[in-house]
Amino acid sequence: MKLSTNVALSVEILAANKLRTFLSVIGVVVGIASVVLMVSAGQGAQKRILDRIRNMGTNLIVVNAGQTQIIAGRQRQMTTVKTLVAEDAEAMAKECPSVALVAPFVSKKLTVRWEDQTANTIAVGMAASGFAVRNFDVARGRFFSEEENRALKRLVVLGPTVAKNLFGTADPVGMTIRIGRVPFEVIGMTAPKGIDQNGTDQDDLIIVPLGTAMRRLLNVTYVQSVYLQAKDTQSMGRAESEVRELLRTRHRLRGKPDDFTIQNQETVLATEREASQSMTFLIGSVAGISLLVGGVGILAVMLIAIRERRGEIGLRRALGARCLDIRVQFLIESILLAGTGGATGVLSGVGCAYALSALGYWETLISWPSTAFAFVFSVVLGIFFGIYPASRAARLEPIEALRAE
Asked: Which of 202, 210, 238, 205 is nearest to 226 (CA)?
């Protein structure tokens, strides 16, 4: 019998037994849709995390004073260390050839006021180069210059969250706010950056010149961290080594452990990417179990179909059909069931993924290679779970099949 005839006959038989076909297909549909949706959700989560890390800066290296530990998913400084100073940052800019930009930072949570409005926020003191290193964009007004930083100007740039809390929808540029008891002129507002990978609002901050923050707000002579931008991605490893060697020399740490911690953005990206990929694989594997259950459902329904169609099988054998014809017939039916379930599952999974993104419940990213693999896998399942029923049907003797009927 021709393959086209077998396919047409299989379609006719499956269409005539709608309930049985539905019961066979539904397990595969749910399995494929779950795999596509879960992988898409995992890919979306991975993209969101990586975008947030990249949003912190490009080719970024962070030097923190003292040793830090990860507590509740965030880097925490264990003790106050005063050995990292602004002069270290200047030396990095001059003596580390793989470093393009350097920006020392200090920060502390302070209260800011405008008229009768108050807000508790993070006050960040940084060099003017910090805007470029941390990828800050200006939304209104301007950023302060390095000359203004050295002149200890009382200027402040607001994050969007603070600006909204203090001024609502009004333009804050030109207004005067008080940080603690010190008046500052608002000269600009940063563009929104959103939430970082640790769940911190990157827009809930104010930025003032480093020298002003150190002398007029915090009264300190040291910095908490130095943000560096390597010349390119390939230079990040060299830049980290140059900075470590320079600081150990300047801090006279021969034979002693580092009194600083260096974080490489590429290392963080690789770690987050690996963790996210592992989670996506785990979620996809769990969803894949339901796909296997769907394959077992096809097997069970096909075995039941053989019992119901013994007369048909015996009659076809009596009329000259070969064992191969019967085997191919049932195998095609199994493949059609799995393929139909796979195609429907792919459409359902992609549709749900797009719906979740469109409704704002979860950012998803369709992985088309994974989606194609899921469909192909469903067809392979149809072949695998269809071999035994097809072989069993082919082994039925015509006389015994007709007698049983």
From this structure: 210
